[in-house]
Amino acid sequence: MTGVPSARSAEVGRRIGVGLMYGLFKPRVLGAWRVPAAGPLIFAVNHSHNVDGPMVMGVAPRPTHFLIKKEAFIGPLDPFLTGIGQLKVDRHSTDRTAISRALGVLEQGGVLGIFPEGTRGEGDFAAIRAGLAYFAVRGGAPIVPVAVLGSSDRPGRLVKALPPLRSRVDVVFGDPFDAGDGSGRRTRRALDEATERIQKQLTAHLENARRLTGR
Question: Residue 75: which CATH number?
Fold first, then answer.
């Protein structure tokens, strides 16, 4: 499929992320063994820091292609993000190119990274968009919930949207689950029901991750 980024490019991004994240922060990764070693997969990541995507990209056991808002692709970041296999998406329209490329990643057995809340906020999965259910059902991919728990309430941040440098950031991977009901239906009602199931699973994972990490 034309324009679908390769796993090799995302692996380059993963290696860059490893060095960068472990150099700037103190990642602690829990539950990485739960991530299936092969096959199409979606990481559903909560989003409260600008570092969430690079953090997951760096610590995940598999190279990941994140759907990233087109506003981030500015100046030299545009060829860089594209070169490491990340997907530009227009959040304000039906971006058919991004949808096609994201489905292509899943068809090739790759990992798609999605922030189901749509934008950076409290990172509590309180409101998630239907796009995640669409990709999961249409792409036949299980979802692995990922909780990134930083130190946003502590002083010492040089940049408001980032955790303090050298602070511990916990990344907790959950058990994979299927969003669909097994019928293969892709109707609006089926996707709405899948979104409800997803939200319950993601919220439960976040609560467990907070108990596990003490965050």
Answer: 3.40.1130.10
